[in-house]
């Protein structure tokens, strides 16, 4: 389905108001594809917002790219709430979605509500994301019932990486029908969108066709409704990236060159020069 001019309200839209779940739903209806990126700080979030990225995810991937852990498991609500607040304060149009980290929603619907409330009230988030299918449907239903928009996450769910046996493709063979059932359960529970990570492209396309809510792919082929990447992966800052990551810049090299030039000028006494000094 081809998007009409009126449907171009996400990427490339002219409105300066915040993107909402209604805009996301309308994009699905109109066949409009859209991009999503992670964000963890004010400066980069502002750049992405001005570039027109409609949804920014304050991901628990901050565990690795901000805090230096080797998985998403160690990061806490206390770690992520300030990052969410920084992103929300520095943007005017992007919808800010915050990850509920491992251990912050699994115990009960009450725990999920308490965690989501912190992200909404202290972190300025407009929605939250959690991982899992039928096992977290009660939490999704409770959150939505309390007025919290929820984005789901299926396939490779990094918080469950130890149970899954490592970072590998999910949904092959007989696993596909279970993943589709989980996607339908999230939709039934009230999720407004669902991330599909490391899922075979044909399965992701089937799920996208069968759901009325948008799918967001990351390593799930080109036929999802949207695509998301960790911005440091996309921009060439991460030393190791997955097969599904396309690198659009080499900021690691650019930054290294700038740092080297600065250091060499300091050592040689060329910086600061007269132009960068006060008289």
From TrEMBL:
UniProt keyword list: Cytoplasm, Magnesium, Metal-binding, Methyltransferase, Pantothenate biosynthesis, Transferase
UniProt-annotated binding residues for Mg(2+): 60, 99, 131
Pathways per UniProt: Cofactor biosynthesis; (R)-pantothenate biosynthesis; (R)-pantoate from 3-methyl-2-oxobutanoate: step 1/2
EC number(s) given by UniProt: 2.1.2.11
Cofactor binding note: Binds 1 Mg(2+) ion per subunit.
Obligatory cofactor(s): Mg(2+)
Record's subcellular location: Cytoplasm
Domain of life: Bacteria
Catalytic-site annotation from UniProt: 197 (proton acceptor)
GO cellular component: cytoplasm
Entry function: Catalyzes the reversible reaction in which hydroxymethyl group from 5,10-methylenetetrahydrofolate is transferred onto alpha-ketoisovalerate to form ketopantoate.
Family: Belongs to the PanB family.
Name of this chain's protein: 3-methyl-2-oxobutanoate hydroxymethyltransferase
Organism for this UniProt entry: Halostreptopolyspora alba
